[in-house]
């Protein structure tokens, strides 16, 4: 099923998409798509839910995110484009949860940012608490999958003391959504195509088949470092085509428009604006 949250920022209502793609109101069934609900998402007949009229804004498809965890250099062809060796263990960093915004919300370039980059990524939403689990059990702890744009200010990421979180955590630097898609609707999570276009030009294309550490291995590994809780999101890395991999380098500027898509997970659209 495809779950969504719709409405004004901070006031989103849970919903789902029916077979025709119409938005249905789920608020009479659950209060929100958050916490323990994610471990037992309601299976309802969408035809029995009221249709939401108009074209409301979509917010992040998960509320109450405790951790937004990023995985770096997790695609073999992305490491190749940057001329970097493949990691021996997953590279782990955090993004502030305050960076999360809706899939079509504007991305705001903060003051002083001059090297802001794009990264289309498969997002994994945890549904059940995971601690010291095995790879074989990992996918049973997943509520669903979504798209994350891991927007990154490279100057702050690499040139200000080596703390990646600095370049990853500005407001609007994690557009998430549009949908939370349950695992039963994904035939093979390691066979999904990812893409990102900038102003209509294709910049990133890739496949989750090129991950260094696949989804199950990543979840299991993280669960040995920290408990994963319902609502936590893992951004699992990006394929080649990022701005700092271009020759010459190309970074985001005011007025740019991005479109991100992943097989079965829908698409995001963002306009870039410079902070006033």
SSE inventory with pairings:
Layout: E1 2-6, E2 13-17, E3 23-25, E4 68-72, H1 76-82, E5 91-95, E6 100-101, E7 107-109, E8 116-117, E9 120-126, H2 135-138, E10 142-149, E11 152-153, H3 154-158, H4 164-168, E12 174-175, E13 180-181, E14 193-198, E15 201-207, H5 215-225, E16 233-235, E17 257-262, E18 266-274
Parallel strand pairs: 4-16, 6-12, 7-18
Antiparallel strand pairs: 1-2, 1-13, 2-3, 4-5, 8-11, 9-10, 9-16, 14-15, 14-17, 17-18
Short description:
This protein is mainly beta. 12% of the residues lie in helices and 30% in strands. The model has no long low-confidence stretch (mean pLDDT 96).
What does this 3D model show about the protein?
The protein is globular and about 55 Å long. 12% of the residues lie in helices and 30% in strands. The protein has one domain: Fumarylacetoacetase-like, C-terminal domain (Fumarylacetoacetate hydrolase, domain 2, Alpha-Beta Complex). A five-stranded mixed β-sheet has the order 5-4-16-9-10. It has a five-stranded mixed β-sheet with strand order 7-18-17-14-15, with no helix packed on it. β2 and β3 form a beta hairpin. The protein contains five helices and 18 strands. With 276 residues, it is mainly β. The longest helix is centred in the last third of the chain and has 11 residues. The mean pLDDT is 96.
């Amino acid at each position: 099923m495809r779950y969504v949250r719709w409405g004004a920022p901070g006031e989103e209502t849970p919903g789902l998409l029916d077979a025709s793609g119409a938005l249905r109101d789920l608020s009479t069934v659950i209060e929100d798509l958050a916490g323990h609900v994610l471990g037992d998402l309601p299976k309802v007949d969408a035809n029995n839910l009221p249709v939401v009229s108009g074209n409301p804004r979509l917010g992040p498809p998960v509320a109450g995110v405790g951790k937004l965890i990023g995985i770096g250099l997790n695609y073999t062809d992305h490491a190749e484009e940057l001329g970097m060796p493949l990691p021996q263990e997953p590279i782990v960093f955090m993004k502030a949860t305050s960076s999360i915004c809706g899939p079509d919300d504007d991305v705001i370039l903060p003051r002083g940012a001059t090297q802001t980059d794009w990264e289309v990524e498969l997002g994994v939403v945890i549904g059940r608490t995971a601690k010291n689990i095995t790879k074989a059990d990992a996918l049973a702890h997943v509520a669903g999958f979504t798209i994350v744009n891991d927007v990154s200010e490279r100057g702050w990421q690499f040139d200000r003391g080596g703390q990646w979180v600095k370049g990853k955590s500005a407001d609007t630097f994690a557009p998430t959504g549009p949908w939370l898609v349950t695992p039963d609707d994904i035939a093979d999570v390691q066979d999904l195509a990812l893409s990102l276009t900038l102003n209509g030009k294709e910049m990133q294309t890739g496949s989750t088949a090129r991950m260094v550490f696949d989804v199950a291995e990543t979840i299991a590994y993280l669960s040995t470092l920290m408990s994963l809780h319902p609502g936590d999101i893992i951004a699992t890395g990006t394929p080649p085509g990022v701005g700092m991999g271009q020759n010459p380098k190309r970074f985001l500027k005011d007025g740019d428009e991005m479109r991100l898509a992943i097989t079965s997970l829908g698409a995001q659209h963002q306009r870039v604006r410079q902070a006033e």
